Amino acid sequence: MSLRRTPFFEHHRAAGGRLIDFGGWELPVQYTGIIEEHKQVRSSVGLFDVSHMGEVFLRGPGAVDAVRHLVTNNVNIPNGHAQYTAMCHPHGGIVDDLIVYRLADDEVLICVNAANREKDHAWIRDNNPDANVAVIDESDDWAQIAVQGRNAESVLNAITDVDLSLVPSFGVVRGSVAGVGGCILARTGYTGEDGFEVFLPNSGADAVWPAVMAAGAEFGIQPIGLGARDTLRLEAKLMLYGNDINDETTPLEAGLGWVTKFDKPSFIGKEALAKQKEEGLTRRLVCLVVEKRIARPHCPILADGEVVGEVTSGTKSPTVEANIALGYVPRRFARPGTRLQVDIRGRMAEAEVVKPPFYKRPY
Amino acid sequence: MSYPADLKYTKSHEWIRLEGPVVTVGVSWFAQDSMGDVVHVELPEVGDEVNAGQPACEIESVKAVSDVYSPVSGEVVEVNEALEDAPEEVNGAPYQGGWLFKVKIGPTLALDDMLSAEEYKAHCG
C-alpha cells in the first residue's frame, strides 16, 4: 500500500524534511533536528503540517445536543468556541480524545486523531442520537496547519483578514489566510504554547505554506516535524492516543476528569464512569522524572521490586533537561514525590512521581 | 556526509580505527544522521569483554534507542567518558570526539567482514 501524502508534501521535501511512514502517512519526522525544532517553538514560533488529522462535521439543528451525547464534556460554550473532550465507550474506555469546534447552533466540527479517523467516523455515525443531524467525514477535503509559539499570533495576523488578537484561547473564527477563503482558525494546539490551528481547503495549501513561512521569517520560523511535536506535547502532558490513552483506559484514570461532566443528563459511558468514580480508581496516569536513562513505552514500572505499572510515553525533555515519562500506576503510588523504579531493558532506573505538567508556558 | 578512508566499517554502521593492538569503535555519519539528536550514550565499562557482532553499548536519540554492536572481540580498555556530558559529539564529530570505546584485541583480527570506506558508502546507498 502506498503512503498517503498531505497537500504540503512538496514543501516538506523542498525543506529537507526526513520523511517517514507515520500511520500510513508520509510525513516529516524532522527537518533540522528535533531539539532545535522543539526549542524554536518554545522560544518563538514553528509551523506544523497536521493535515493527517481528521475532520468530521455534524450538521443539523440538533448538532450540539448530538455532540453532548457523544462526548464526555458539556459543549457549554458559545458559537465560535472550541472544547477539549474525550469520547467514550459505554464501558468508559476512550474511543478518542478530540477537540470539538462549535461553529454554529447547527454545525460542529470534530477534529479527530489521524489513526482513529475511520473508527471515529463510524462511531459518531452509529451513535448519533438524532436522525436529522448529518455526520460527514470531510477529512479528504481539508488541509490543516498548526502555527505554535508565542509569536504565532503576530505571524498569522499578517496574512489573515481577521484580527486574531481578538480571538481568545479556544476561540474559533472563519476567515481567509494568504488569500485563501473558507479557512477555520482556532486558538488551539498540541504543544503547550499559545498558537493556532488552521483548517484550510486542500486547494489553498500551496498558497498558505510559503505565506506563513514568509510572515514568520522575522521570528525565525521553521517547519516542525513529528519528532518535536511529540516532545512538545509530552512536556505539556498532552495525551497521545494509542500510547497514553486507548479503548481500555478511562478519562478518570488518565487525569481527564476535568473534561468529564457528570452533571449532564446523559452521555455515552456516563454510568460506567460514575461507577468508577464512586468505587475509586485503581490506577492513575502519572508524570515521572527518570534518572540517567530514558524510559520508553511499555517499560515496566516497579515499586519495592514489584511491577506495578507500565510507561506509556517517554523522552528526554529538551526544555527541562530531564528524562520525562508518563505511565499508569496504582493510585497509592500516584502522589507526587513517590519514589519508583523503571525497568529499562533489564536495568533499573530510579524515578519520581512529579506534579503535572512538566512544562507550563511562562506567559 | 563523510566516510574517512583510513577507517573500516560494518554493515551495522559502526567504524573501527586500528592502532596497534587497540581498536577504537564509533558509529558512522550515516548512523548518527539516521538516529537524529543523540541525548545519552550508555557506554560499556572498562574491563568488560565484548564480542564481535554482539551489542556493547546503547545510543539514545530523542526518538529511540539503538544498540551498537562491537565489530571486534576483546577487552574494553577505555571508554569516552566525555560523552556523558556531551553526547551530541556523536552527531557533531562521529569519527573524532564522538568515539565510543576502545577494545584490546587478540593477536588475530579478522577484518574480512569489514567494509572499506568505498564499500560502506555503496552499502548505505
Please describe the structure with a list of short key phrases separated by commas or semicolons.
heterodimer, A: 363 residues, alpha+beta, Elongation Factor Tu (Ef-tu), domain 3, six-stranded mixed β-sheet, six-stranded antiparallel barrel, B: 125 residues, OB fold (Dihydrolipoamide Acetyltransferase, E2P), six-stranded antiparallel β-sheet, three-stranded antiparallel β-sheet, 3 helices
**Count of distinct strands of chain B:** 9
User: Compute the gyration radius of chain A: what is it?
Assistant: 20 Å
Outline the low-pLDDT stretches of chain B: none
Low-confidence stretches of chain A: none
**Secondary-structure element pattern of chain B, one letter each:** EEEHEEEEEHEH
CATH class of chain B: Mainly Beta
Largest sheet of chain A: 6 strands, mixed
The number of helical segments of chain B is 3
Spatial strand sequence of the major β-sheet of chain A: 10-11-12-9-3-13
- Overall shape of chain B: globular
CATH architecture of chain B: Beta Barrel
* Approximate strand percentage of chain B: 25-35%
Walk me through what this model shows.
The complex is a heterodimer of chains A (363) and B (125). With 363 residues, chain A is of the alpha+beta class. Chain A has a domain of 73 residues: Elongation Factor Tu (Ef-tu), domain 3 (Beta Barrel). Helices cover 20% and strands 34% of the residues of chain A. Chain A has 8 helices and 19 strands. In chain A, strand 6 and strand 7 form a beta hairpin. In chain A, helix 2 packs across helix 7. The mean pLDDT of chain A is 97. Chain B has 125 residues and is of the alpha+beta class. Chain B has a single domain, classed as RNA polymerase II/Efflux pump adaptor protein, barrel-sandwich hybrid domain (OB fold (Dihydrolipoamide Acetyltransferase, E2P)), CATH 2.40.50.100. Chain B has 3 helices and 9 strands; from the N terminus they run E-E-E-H-E-E-E-E-E-H-E-H. In chain B, the strands form 2 sheets. In chain B, strands 1-2-3-9-8-5 form a 6-stranded antiparallel beta sheet. Chain B is globular. The mean pLDDT of chain B is 92.
